[in-house]
Amino acid sequence: MDDVFCKIVTGELPSEVEYRDDDVLVIKDIHPQAPVHLLIMPIRHYEGLADCVKTEPELMGKLFTVVREMAIKFQLDKGYRLILNEGDHGGKLVPHLHIHLLGGKALGTKIIK
């Protein structure tokens, strides 16, 4: 695929990498919405949640395991928010499965302004 995250995975585009293994990449968001704003994504391209769950459901578990590891690494013991945008109405901008991890301050209860 040719999306921006695939280009980051292959090294075509630079990014601030916080974690990488054979299956998962974690980078800092370039437009952070909180003091900690990470993007957790599979190395392999999956356009969306349904695509990944159908073909490789165990990878979803690994993504959430890495979320927890990042929460510990960044000392988010007071809490954090996970966001997974799906489709146009969900606000998805990059067609590559990814989870936003936000924390480092009180985020409040509202998700939509």
From TrEMBL:
A motif (Histidine triad motif) lies at residues 96-100. Gene3D superfamilies: HIT-like. SUPFAM superfamilies: HIT-like. The active site is at residue 98. One of its GO terms (molecular function) is catalytic activity. Residues 4-112 form the HIT domain. This is HIT domain-containing protein. The lineage of its organism: Bacteria, Candidatus Yanofskyibacteriota.
